[in-house]
Amino acid sequence: MPRMLDVSADVRAEIGDEEADRLLAGDNAPGAYDCTSCRTPGDSEQEPTSTVLFIGEETAVLAFAHATCIPSQVVTVAEEQLKGAVRSIIGEAPADAPTGPPAPRSADGPAPAPRQATLGVTCGLVLVEGDLRPALVVEPSGPIARPGSVGLDDDFLPLLREQGFHPVADMAVLPAGGTGWSVLLAMGQLHAVLQDSGESGGQNAWWKAHQPLPVSDGWRAAVNKSRTVVVYAAPHGSIGQQPREDLMRDALEKAAAQGQLVAMSMPLAGT
Predict the structure, then answer these.
(1) What three-state secondary structure class fits 247?
(2) Number of DSSP helices (H) and strands (E) in the chain, helices first
(3) Cys-Cys with 155: which of 73, 111, 146, 223 at CB 3.0–4.6 Å?
């Protein structure tokens, strides 16, 4: 039976027209599946479904997702991560999955300027306007200089404001959205914060996890409800690695009171 599948041009180019046509005809595509993004059941015979191709250096894994979660796309994954990816697809939790909030902190990804620093990213739930919102807290490991600058000033917040982030004066107010930013959550894990590349019309990874970052069940449930992620950013030394979400909230409120916090509400999207 034909499936309600979307096979993007990028996926088709990787798997070939013959395999893509077999998928669309229902020959090689499952009816029921677990969405590779939200991990809830889907049915390609009953609802629009995206094909998502995860590619390593030598191998590839084809997965399926609700079209409302992520579009059909090709996602590059480190070869050593594919075994974990397969475990995720068949529903086995990774051995290092978090058991409670806050979710893990990752210090991967390039800083937005030449000075040697990395961006630490922490997942957590933040109460905003009466709802628990999925949030990412970004804090560099050191000061960030403006490109071309030879001074010692930390320009992390000014650079982000120029790219659409908004100053946070009240943590109880949901930050406004911006243009061209999104968060990639695939296979139930956090992969990247994306930004429009401009001329090409595509998106580049402003921050990319060296290894896909597991998120808690509560965080994933919240993001499936809101379809947006609140991304907070503060200069080096403002937030720190807080062991609990209430302490992280206190640190965010303190940074906001000092004018040291910016934020943006970003949609979920693919590359």
Answers:
(1) helix
(2) 6, 15
(3) 146
How many CB atoms sit inside 10 A of residue 257's CB?
A: 13
**Residue 133 CA from chain centroid, whole number:** 14
Dump pLDDT digits (tens) for 259-270: 999 999 999 874
Q: How far apart are CA 267 and CA 127, in angstroms?
A: 18
Q: For residue 63, what are the β-bridge partners?
A: 52
Q: Residue for token digits 């010692």?
A: 152
Residue ranges of alpha helices (H) inside the chain are 9-15, 17-25, 82-89, 156-162, 217-226, 245-257
Q: What is the pTM of this model?
A: 0.63
What is the dihedral angle through the alpha carbons of 214, 216, 221, 224, rounded to the nearest 10 degrees?
Answer: -20
| CA–CA dist 174, 128 (Å, integer) | 6
Q: What is the mean pLDDT of each run of 10 residues along the chain (271 residues)?
A: 82 87 78 75 88 77 82 75 50 35 48 56 92 93 73 83 94 93 86 77 77 86 91 92 87 95 87 35
Quote the longest CA-to-CA distance of the chain: 64
Q: How far apart are CA 109 and CA 213, in angstroms?
A: 12
Structure-token pair, residue 230: 């609140």
Cβ neighbours of residue 55 closer than 8 Å, sequence gap 6 or more? 14, 74, 75, 76, 77
Q: Quickly count: other Cβ atoms within 10 Å of residue 108's Cβ.
A: 15
Q: Using alpha carbons only, what angle is made at residue 48 by residues 29 and 196, rounded to the nearest 5 degrees?
A: 105
Q: Please answer whether residues 59 and 85 qualify as being in contact, where contact means their C-beta atoms are separated by less than 8 angstroms.
A: no
Would you call 249 exposed, middle or buried from its count of C-beta atoms within 10 A (0-12, 13-18, 19+)? middle
Contacts of 126 (CB under 8 A, 6+ apart): 132, 133, 135, 171, 230, 232, 245, 248, 249, 252
